[in-house]
Amino acid sequence: MLVLEDVHTHYGKIEALHGVSVEVKKGEIVSLIGANGAGKTTLLMTVCGNPQATSGRVIFQGRDITRDMTSNIMRSGIAIVPEGRRVFSGLTVEENLHMGGFFNTKSEIRKSQDHVYELFPRLKEREHQRAGTMSGGEQQMLAIGRALMSKPNMIILDEPSLGLAPLVIKQIFEIIGKLREEGITVFLVEQNAHQALNLADRGYVLETGRIRLHDTGRNLLANPDVQNAYLGG
Amino acid sequence: MASHNLKHALFCAIVTLIISYPILGFNLESQGIDVTLEGAETSTVLGVLLAAVIVFLFQLFRDNVMGSLRQLPAVNPLANRKPMEQSKRLKLESTLLTLMVIGALIWPFIASRGAVDLATLVLIYIMLALGLNVVVGLAGLLDLGYVAFYAVGAYTFALLSQYYGVSFWFALPIGALLAALFGLVLGFPVLRLRGDYLAIVTLGFGEIIRILLNNMTSLTGGPNGIGGIPDPTLFGMEFGRRVKEEGNTSFHETFGIAYSGEHKVIFLYLIALVLAVITAIAIRRLMRMPVGRAWEALREDEIAAKSLGLSRTAVKLSAFTIGAFFAGFAGTVFASKQGFISPESFVFLESAIILAIVVLGGMGSQMGVILAAIAVTILPELAREFSEYRMLIFGAAMVLMMVWRPQGLMPMRRIHIELKRQE
Ligand SMILES: Nc1ncnc2c1ncn2[C@@H]1O[C@H](COP(=O)(O)OP(=O)(O)OP(=O)(O)O)[C@@H](O)[C@H]1O
Ligand SMILES: [Mg+2]
């Protein structure tokens, strides 16, 4: 579904990704783990075309999107939950969701909205609250809900567990599992390696802009190198 | 604490003396070709000293003074009121707006000619401020060259009427569309800039337009401007004493009433009123449409908005273009009202005043912007007797506003949209 082939990405003169190849197949959950500054966010943003890859190819659903504009990519069936949630804090929960379905018809929006409220009953309770006044966990739910509003085939999540309490993290991961059951492909970036690999079909380990390891989630969890570096020994 | 205050107060007093004494304390007297420096009158010198003493005392007791100042907003019953429910608020707002429009409709028949003329100017500023409010208040793009689009509207009408004899009613949409086109073309390269950079570049564009108008002497008459811009007609009826254009009739003859110069002023006022109302309603509509949401979303979080597939350029350009469109509207009315325009009407100060109206009104709030436009246009007229101090009063009013109501007269309370369910 999503293929990155030998992708290099630069910020100005500095190369942040030194030839990364990743594949996410339809219906999978794939986790990408790595230390701070490894280039995880950069990799996801490259998929979104912001910044664009300087060389290599990004292919989504069989189409080369390497040089596409971000706005076009994001309308082609892919949705991202950006790092740090980034909900529109002055807008209400409902309006945030509507922004997520910006390019859909009203009846589609209504349907997706009901669906999101089913997944996150908490959001329904807070429908008219301003997003900025909600707790971190609620905002994360909203960010995921907003991404789902466009009815994507694939959802990309950048550290959804960032700064959340264990109980909320558990909830979020449960929802991610549910998304797979609904047939949405998931590409997940996490610091929280244990839970991410547990949930994932396959995993990649990114180190300073290069893919170091690539295996099934279970094998990576059992891998001593991964245990030492990312699972606290 | 006390000694610290004393030191600080002394310092401030000395600075006051250093700044004001050399400027006010001496006069340059010219005797023939010689210029001599003379001490000013004793009263001026005393005034400077008094000012220093006041500064000293104020700084010494600043904490007390500021403390009581801070309690002042409580005097204003509106300040600490609980926010009303949305439906109630919207109702109140529309009742208020309707009352204002009714009042505005009666106004020309009870007020003097000068007052009606001034009210027309107020309406022009309302249009301008509502337009700029879209750009600055809603889309969050700091545009310091807004006056350029106003100039495009005004000059479009002036030039079209001079060279092709086009009437007001034809020029009105053309002026607005041309201004919008300018907005589109100018916006395209500059909108990738952010914040301060955008502000500076738009400031430059504003000046470029003015300088162009000043220098394209053969076309625009340069600093001499363009005169003889016709008044609007009412279904082919002219408001002058004599009919200027072939085929037109005159208003007073058609209705068999005596000629009066007031008819024209009132008619122009009513046109401005209708256009201002149209502007307000159109922008209100836009705010509730998806494009209005998109402006806000982009202002709130650019990355998030982009991640949802919104195109930054398209969203920003739409705000910029729509803002320019209404400036063009206002410009056409202005040209018609003045009958004569020159680049001098479109200096940076105009942009600054329109921006001040938007900020004073509370960014994004239409009601606030309308009130601020009225205040900012009328106050200087009222203070005309102190005309030397007009700018000073204007400045002081701005500073006071920023102390008391930094969020503006009526900060924007967002109208939230609820999707109606079909159950
Ligand atoms: N906008 C930018 N301009 C320049 N350099 C950047 C930019 N964004 C990221 N970088 C650099 O690229 C490298 C990778 O950053 P990135 O944000 O992708 O890491 P990450 O793996 O997401 O880290 P974290 O886990 O902390 O989110 C870092 O060295 C960072 O300093
Ligand atoms: Mg990151």
UniProtKB/TrEMBL annotation, chain A:
One of its GO terms (biological process) is organic cation transport. GO terms for molecular function: ATP binding; ATP hydrolysis activity; branched-chain amino acid transmembrane transporter activity. InterPro entries: AAA+_ATPase (IPR003593), ABC_branched_ATPase_LivF/BraG (IPR030660), ABC_transporter-like_ATP-bd (IPR003439), ABC_transporter-like_CS (IPR017871), BCAA_Transport_ATP-bd_LivF (IPR052156), P-loop_NTPase (IPR027417). It holds the Pfam family ABC_tran. Keywords: Amino-acid transport, ATP-binding, Nucleotide-binding, Transport. Residues 2-233 form the ABC transporter domain. Belongs to the ABC transporter superfamily. PANTHER family: HIGH-AFFINITY BRANCHED-CHAIN AMINO ACID TRANSPORT ATP-BINDING PROTEIN LIVF. This is High-affinity branched-chain amino acid transport ATP-binding protein. It comes from Marinobacter vulgaris. The gene is livF.
Automatic annotation (TrEMBL), chain B:
Residues 5-107 form the High-affinity branched-chain amino acid transport system permease LivHM N-terminal domain. It is a multi-pass membrane protein. It is found in: Cell inner membrane. CDD domains: TM_PBP1_LivM_like. The keyword DNA-binding does not apply. Keywords: Cell membrane, Membrane, Transmembrane, Transmembrane helix. One of its GO terms (molecular function) is branched-chain amino acid transmembrane transporter activity. The keyword Cell membrane applies. Pfam families: BPD_transp_2, DUF3382. GO terms for cellular component: plasma membrane. It comes from the Bacteria. The chain crosses the membrane at residues 7-24, 44-61, 90-110, 122-142, 147-164, 170-190, 197-213, 265-283, 314-334, 346-379, 391-407. Coiled coil: none annotated. This is High-affinity branched-chain amino acid ABC transporter permease LivM. The gene is livM.
